[in-house]
Amino acid sequence: MKRVAILISGGGSNMLALLRAMTGDHPARAVLVASNDPGAGGLTKARAQGIPTAAVDHRGFGRDRAAFEAELLKPILAAELDILCLAGFMRVLTPDFVRRFEGRMLNIHPSLLPKYPGLHTHARALEAGDAEAGCTVHEVTAELDAGPILGQALVPILPGDTPETLAARVLVQEHRLYPAVLRRFAGGDRTPVMLG
Ligand code: GRF
Questions:
Q1: Which residue is closest in CA terms to ligand 1's atom 12?
Q2: Do both 77 and 114 map to the same domain?
Q3: Which residue's C-alpha comes closest to atom 1 of ligand 1?
Q4: Is 32 in the same domain as 97?
Q5: Percent of the chain predicted with pLDDT > 70
Q6: 9, 19, 63, 130: which has the fewest Cβ within 10 Å?
Q7: Residue nearest to atom 3 of ligand 1 (CA)
Q8: How many CA atoms lie within 13 A of 33 on its CB side?
Q9: Domain residues for 111?
Q10: Do residue 85 and residue 136 come from a single domain?
Q11: 0.85 exceeded by pTM
């Protein structure tokens, strides 16, 4: 059974989708949900599911990313994880941190990578006049939003879409894609999951 830790920054809807999927014959179980924000709504949801939580407020560390990560690493290493999932985690991690988990660290990004790494992905897709958008689960490497792709889900862009309406349509697919990728990845299969 693979031990999964999940990092969040906010509401944690992707984290919750992962927790709900890790039951029965799923080859993984959540052992920790941690956040850079003690007030993250997802921490309450994780606790309600009986999952241990931890929080390290990044604002106490100013620009010292390494010091923040050293603190965040304590509960993460204590969890003795096999897989680390970033799910709505909004802090950029240093290469040193990533190197510790390379090959067993996943992230979900709300665009069809390699298009639109970084922020404001939906506004950029709309601005470009794209016919479709979507989300990507990828392995996390030192380069932001650039690791091997483990799955993608496509959604149509519809007339009149705003970044908000598009984000809502993509988020539904995020909640399908991430659990499917985690199940396959935890079973040792890196074949990309492609959802229409
Ligand atoms: C989602 O759009 C996800 O793609 C991005 O963060 C947003 C919020 O995620 N990474 P969640 O509801 O906190 O899981």
A1: 13
A2: no
A3: 88
A4: yes
A5: 100
A6: 63
A7: 88
A8: 32
A9: 107-196
A10: no
A11: yes
